[in-house]
Amino acid sequence: MSDIFETEADEDEADLRELEDSDSEGFDEDAGKSYVFPRPLYRLKLDYSSEAVYATAPKNLVLKPGDRVLLPTRYGSDLARNLGTCEHPVGIRPSDLVEVIRLASQKDIDWADELESQVEEAGSVFREKVKRHGLAMKLIAVHFLVGEPKVLFFFSSDNRVDFRELVKDLVSVFKMRIELRQIGVRDESRITGGLGICGRPFCCHCISEKLPSVSIRMAKEQNLSLNSAKISGQCGRLLCCLSYESKVYEDAKRSMPPEGVRFFWDETTFRVSSVNVITGMVQITGQDGRVLDVNASRFSRQGGKWKID
């Protein structure tokens, strides 16, 4: 079984590599391990992009879950929603932290609602201008910043786009700063949302803080069929859940013999033909024709060799 699996993987390796996203920021679980994060540390969310932001607050400000605050983002000052305190931050760096400017006032919230009502019209203007300039751009989302006069247009395109003249046209219409952000297919899925093949909302839209790095190696480690339709998401890239479960498989396999290992037991030589991490069972095939399923807990490694206790 193992030999067939590896052969199929090699034949399709070039095509499957296209499913990997080399531009992903990645989620470094070891980042900031030696750093003592300040307390309280808040986990905030930017509703329009589903991005998570970690922040501290001024000493005289205690935030409650659901509070909306004004804070600096990579695009400018904007509103974010507090999801709660973070006791054990994972995969973030000290440089990722920002400080909340202040609690959002009712005026800020009303202004945000007013700006949100202008999004659909702004999108129509953008599409009309794009068509006039003959640019190959697909509009993904529009967002007006609350803390400063600026509008963001997120778009996707197969190629780099020279949109300088387009920006000039948009500035003349909106009379504020314009920022166009070309994003990839994974970011597009995170912003728009949807349902995955599991029937649940996209992890990148409702769970993930960052887009994790995913590789074909992870699918191999989990003994999954290397069928692009089964291991890729709606975005056309590898499923994020492959990354989430990868560590579990790696840890479990350390206590299990790898496929192909041979050892002598019960007066004959056996070969490990398959390993099932989920059930914790190892299938072995003997030279005498026997095929046995053995619990992984019975295996141990001594002197660099595997044996059954």
Oligomer: single chain
What does the main sheet amount to? 6 strands, mixed
If you average the pLDDT, what whole number results? 83
The strand order across the widest sheet is: 5-2-1-4-3-6
Q: Note poorly predicted spans.
A: 1-11
Bin the strand percentage: 25-35%
Helix residue percentage: 25-40%
H/E element order:
HHEEEEEEHHEEHEHHHHHEEEEEE
Helix segment tally: 10
**Rg, please?**
26 Å
- Count of extended strands: 15
Could you tell me how far the N terminus lies from the C terminus, measured between alpha carbons in angstroms?
25 Å
Specify the overall morphology.
elongated
Structural class determined from secondary elements: alpha+beta
Characterization of the model:
- The chain is an alpha+beta fold and 309 residues long.
- The protein has 10 helices and 15 strands.
- It has a 6-stranded mixed sheet with strand order 5-2-1-4-3-6, covered by helices on one side. A 4-stranded antiparallel sheet has the order 10-11-12-13, with no helix packed on it. A 3-stranded mixed sheet has the order 7-8-9, with helices on both faces.
Give the gist of this structure.
The chain is of the alpha+beta class and 309 residues long. Helix content is 28%, strand content 26%. The chain has a six-stranded mixed β-sheet, covered by helices on one side. Strands 10-11-12-13 form a four-stranded antiparallel β-sheet, with no helix packed on it. Strands 7-8-9 form a three-stranded mixed β-sheet, sandwiched between helices.
